Amino acid sequence: MTAETAAATPEAFAFQAETSKLLDLMIHSLYREKEIFLRELISNASDACDKLRYAALTKPELLADDPDLKVMIELNQGKRTLVVTDNGIGMNRAELIENLGTIARSGTEAFVKSLAEGKAGDVSLIGQFGVGFYSVFMVADKVEVITRKAGESESWRWESAGRGKFTIVPEPEAKRGASIVLHLRKDADEFLAAERIRHIVRTYSDHIALPIKLLGESRSTETLNSASALWTRPKAEITEEKAREFYHHVAHMPGDPWLTIHLRAEGRMEYAALLFVPDRRPFDLFEPDRRSRAKLYVKRVFITDDCEGLLPRYLRFVRGVVDTSDLPLNISRETLQHNPLLAKIKTGLVKRVLGDLEKKATEAAPDYLAFWKNFGAVVKEGLYEDQENRAGLIKLARFQSLNGGAEDWLSLDDYVARLQEGQDAIYYITGDSAEALRKSPQVEGFRARGVDVLLMTDAVDHFWLPSIGEHGGKQFRSVAQGSADLDAIKVKESDAKPEPAGAEGELDKLIALIKLSLGNAVKDVRRSARLTDSAVCLVADSGDLDMHLERLLRTHQREVATQKRILELNPRHRLIRALGTLVSKAGASDTLEDAAHLLLDQARIVEGEPPSDPAAFSRRLSAVLSRAFEAQPG
Ligand code: ADP
Questions:
Q1: Which of 44, 123, 205 to mutate to test the pocket of ligand 1 (most atoms within 8 A of CB)?
Q2: Greater confidence, 560 or 440?
Q3: So what's the pLDDT on residue 106?
Q4: In this predicted structure, what is the pLDDT of residue 495?
């Protein structure tokens, strides 16, 4: 096939199903923030120039014939087109198909769904999901991308009306980089006006470190932005507004930064950083790769945004830019992770971020809680991953507790300062929600003694607690594990319920018979020191897998051998006392057999587990209730 015939027959491709859905929404929904398409195109152009600058570090010839990187916006009222052109890295044919036909990033599905549900404001989040390009279909009914990849001779024209398919055809001769041609819809006239474009660029893209130029009808060009790398500017020049706009660009996040950190290290190490803590959780916070997305620049050249050496994973919510003149420009991305200079920068950054967080925690406690609720679960990963900063991280941690309400959060120091007389451990319980944990039977005895219990609701708690072991000389101890050893702590007068006199022998007999009935279903049956109101509860033997962790592992489809638990009986409970009397009079019986299994199932249900044999459970419950009702006359 010759170039001419190929040009005459464009090759057609279908968009991936997910992309089609997104495009349909772009075309048919009426979003208020249509102008964000320009922010997305400029952001892509700026990324493309960053990529070229990086590639040219090892292959300077890529830049040679056209070294001044820039973005050009061209308006043509007659043709009703808006064209955004960059002289960056460009795309070859395979990249066009890959980048502008499919959606690679996970999380997009959720985004498309939220758009489909009519949450119109969400459209400005589009960049976060790696699909910003498609926002052009909010304003254009046809889009062309004319591009040539740096270092390659072939150029291409991608074209689509956004309805199901796109075509690709060789383009006779395009310049290096990419031109995005938007044929504007009838309802998008506003984007043909230079004044409107000027305003949008200044609002969203002023900080872009390349010149953004506007070529108007009169063919005169003007530069629209200040094109300065904001992070290298003196502090006084980084206004709140500029910082916010830059944050939207680097973080792809809406809203305001919760914390802005501007740092300039001089002397032995030279680097500047402009970092942000978002005011909400980024959608990929709990992706398995736990990647930090802060961007590394060397002498204002973008190097990478995928660098573990810059910030630790437990600070992966921090967004922004770090720029240093100490690293060589031709450093390879692969060796960065082990670079000793970068390690020093990392140490400095972590110290500063943790220091600023601690300041917020002490000086603006309510505001700090908003941060902790968003990112506490991530920061706690540092407790076992970063021994060096453990002491600093512990100070940042906040917990809900049994004695406090939903909005009362304690530090570990607060907890230790409020120990009850005779209390020598930091008690905690793990589970899915603080609300559910407050109702757990395992905490009853603690509540009765005024002993506070920390309510741990993050999966990560199962990992840092055993790795730290203690705080302020007090061991961490789970109230749902091992024996409760509460005897040294007095019960509050009002809650004291004496154990019935003479019941000890009955209870021993009851325990022995229940053990016999339950056989292998439990590890042990014993009297409880931790129950005051409930009849029974389950606890894990010390050294066994925590019950909540076992459930978590199961929900993540991990193979976990079922652990046998200990069933504890409350000697003061009416039901247990009645059963004690029953066995002392009649010994083993069908009623006792049923009761033993029902008690175990009851304890399982309170733990959030189903009865081990639902059919047997319902049969037994009916049998026991029938006997009870039959014994009642009338
Ligand atoms: P994102 O930029 O977040 O990855 P987009 O949907 O905006 O998502 O763009 C998809 C991909 O298309 C980009 O990652 C990039 O590889 C490619 N791309 C978009 N615009 C350009 C451009 N002007 N030059 C080169 N590549 C581009």
A1: 44
A2: 440
A3: 63
A4: 56
**Is residue 521 pLDDT above 60, yes or no?**
yes
Backbone angles phi, psi at 168, to 5 degrees: -130, 135
Per-residue confidence (pLDDT) for residue 494, from 0 to 100:
54
Strands (E), 117-161: 140-148, 155-160
Q: Give CA 453 to chain center in angstroms.
A: 27
Helix axes 590-606, 574-586, angle to 10 degrees: 160
- What is the mean pLDDT of the segment spanning 418-424? 91
128 HSE (CA, 13 A, CB side):
24
Backbone angles phi, psi at 105, to 5 degrees: -80, 140
The torsion angles phi and psi of 227, rounded to 5 degrees, stand at 50, 35
Token output for 460: 């990560």
Read off the pTM: 0.81
Alpha carbon nearest to ligand 1 atom 12, residue? 99
Ligand 1: does its nearest atom lie under 6 Å from the Cβ of 101?
no
80: left (phi over 0), alpha (psi -120 to 50) or beta: left
Q: Residue 124 pLDDT more than 90?
A: no
Ligand 1: which atom is nearest the Cα of residue 90?
Answer: 25
Q: Between 527 and 217, whose confidence is greater?
A: 527
125 C-beta closer than 6 A to ligand 1: no
Domains and CATH numbers, the chain: 3-223 (3.30.565.10), 230-371 (3.30.230.80), 399-496 (3.40.50.11260), 501-630 (1.20.120.790)
Query: What number is the average pLDDT over the span 171-178?
Result: 94
Nearest atom in ligand 1 to the alpha carbon of residue 134 is: 6
